[in-house]
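User: Can you fold this complex?
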Amino acid sequence: MEIVLAFVIGGLFAASVYMLLRRSLVKLLIGLALLSHSANLLIFTSVKLTRGSPPVIGMNATALREPFADPLPQALILTAIVISFGVMAFALALAFRAYRSVGTDDLDRMKSTDD
Amino acid sequence: MILAIAVLSGFGLAFLAPFLTRRLGNTAGLILALLPAALTIYFASLLPDAAGNEPATFSFPWAVEMGILFSFRADGLGLLFALLISGVGALIFIYAGGYLKGNSNLGRFYAWLSVFMGAMIGVALADNILVLFVFWELTSISSYMLIGFEHERESARFSALQAFLVTGLGGLAMLAGLLLLGISGGSYELSVLLQKGDALRADALYIPAVALILLGAFTKSAQFPFHFWLPNAMEAPTPVSAYLHSATMVKAGVYLLARLGPALNGTDLWFYTVGGVGAATMLVGGYLALTQTDLKRLLAYSTVSALGMLTMLIGLGSKHALEAAVVLLLAHGLYKGALFLVAGALDHETGTRDVTQLGGLFSKMKLTAIAGGIASLSMAGLPPLFGFISKELTYETALEYGSWLTGVVVLAGLFFVFVAGAVGVAPFWGKPKQTPKSAHEAPFSMWFAPMTLAGLSLLIGIFPVPVSGFLVSPAVSAAIGEATTVKLKLWHGVNTAFILSMSTLLIGAGLFAVRDSIRRGLSKLTWRWGPSFFYERSLDGLNTLARGQTRFLQNGYLRFYLFTVVFAGTGLAGFTLFARDGFHWPEKVLDIRFYEAMLAVLILCGAFFATISRSRLGAVASLGVAGYGVSLIYLLFGAPDLAMTQFLIESLTVILFVLAFYHLPQFTQLSSRRTRLRDIFIALLAGGVMTTLVLSAVGIQLHDSISPYFAQNALPLAHGRNIVNVILVDFRGIDTLGEITVLSIAAVGVYALLKLNPHTGKDKEGEGE
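Assistant: Here's the predicted assembly.
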């Protein structure tokens, strides 16, 4: 399964790089969203995958029973998801404001604020 | 210890100078001069020890592992230099008070002058060559600040930068040379290196080390072809020209050559390079002086010529030559310093420095005229002045090396006589001329300094014995590396040198008499391709290169930066991965189930359609498909928290995009087909390298995981059953606080961007509705 995920990560990364290289600001933002998916999956695949056993201690148990999914990357990804949403919201607002002020979403024409 | 305090006291004075100047105004110079005066007395008190070959030393372990000691050593040569620096320094402090009277930046001037004095004394007395380098660079920096003192003028800024670049680049070369010297000698202590002369000369590093050190010394001492910065440095106030660019700083290169002589001289390389460059500089400087009409530039070119003569003598390297060099160093410091100060007084009192406009001022400026007259006679080499002794010694040395060298030195002697007459005699005698300001005697502060220097020229000339015993002998001993005694005499009898000296005077006086026609004749010959032409060209070239490179690398296109980063990153990572044989097909992986594989295909399809979709909504919907797919992956592999969060966030993101689209333009195809193909290539390359990396990295565990710690302690320590939540809110609670802060800032930012309209934005909003 790791092999399949490796291809998913690579595919998402390729798509995001292509979108990041576009001139349109909105496409760039879509690329950013794809990039964060790719990065999160990368963290997720960096440890041994486990099916269907979340790292939660049952109500009557006192300790986790093997096997269980590694909680550490999950904590990292959880943070990353939330932060990337914050970035995305801010970037969208910025794009909106930039379009209002400059009148274009073409990055090549945003080099100067003079006209 | 006192030695170190004495060396560093100049820097302390630099801090005090602005406050003292603010308090005391123009009389501050008299108070500030007390320190250099005290230093002069202190250094003089060290002379007997140096003469007895037991110089005062100071050593403090600085960076011992790298062989750097903060060490000073006051031997004869160093003390001669230190005395020149502190003695002339004291007079310059007094003089500057008169010359720059009422200048609002006098405090800053004194501060930099103090820094320079401290740095220069450091150069003279440092025993560690790296400490010497630090002080050496400090003199360049203070010189930059002092040449550019009147920074409102562009020419002053240009000259300051030019002097700094030439001497600074030379200084860097010298640092490399000194390091090579230290490597081949196994020590950075001068006192050690000077004992190892034979080993150093035989070392393979000898030639590069000497070449680099000479580059430093030649640039600092304005040797041909680096001489051009010194006349331009005359933009500095005259006290600075007298002090830095005549008596002391420009002699630092000469000093270094004399200092390192025992370790490096005696080879053909040294003899021909140092001697040859010195002789060339001597003639070029003297020749260029002939055409000048500006007092200070005249003096500057003759200083270049004298520096060339010093360098040449050190290149010859015999005992007689070094004797002549040491005496010339001292004599030149005294008479040239005095002449500069006289020139400054003339400029100050008459308003012009043009020799063709000055004449007959003796009756109005008697004291200045007397000082100038004595100094110029010393420069011309008339008995019984010190300059005469110096000239005799130089001629005697030249005679030892044959007729061609004698001819060259005599020619330089003619230039000296010419300049001496033009600066020290011509302005005061002959027909009185109209000057921009009506001339009158300079104030005390401004005639005292040149008078003292000129008086010393006379005094030492008549009584040379104490100076030769206490000052010249130890210095020459240090320069040749063995104890020796020098006996200076005013009268050597009528010998070849004397006859040459007298004929120089006569012919020089003859040349001086027809100076106007010489000037007219020579000024027609001008060079366009001089060294300063190359300096300006290379400076322009450097600027053009910098502009072009900046425009290329920082062209303002975000895509270009991304492209560079991604391409370089994947290229390097991919290359390393394959070159180092880092790729391994993963083993011990989880089996693949059909529905999981379908999910993976779904995500990839989502990503693919998000990139190719022509409609904005289609792209965002595809993005959503990919996002929900990812959250399902989380769910399947034991991460329900992630799945929930991802699901929620994905929905919000899609909604946000759709809301934003309402205000944003439609997708249009902006890039050309070629650009798109290039980007597809880059994207596929990056994705491929990423997949390969992940495949290689799966199953590699470099360190023990810390996850079991969280799993075991979540319940007993934090009383939580959901380990992921416990990590976030308890074990790593502060991190989560940081995350919340970031989110709040983003929220504030979004609010500000949406709600707060700059007034220009408001107009556009109005148009839109």
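Chain A has one domain: 2-51+68-109. Residues 102 and 115 of chain A are 8 Å apart (CA to CA).
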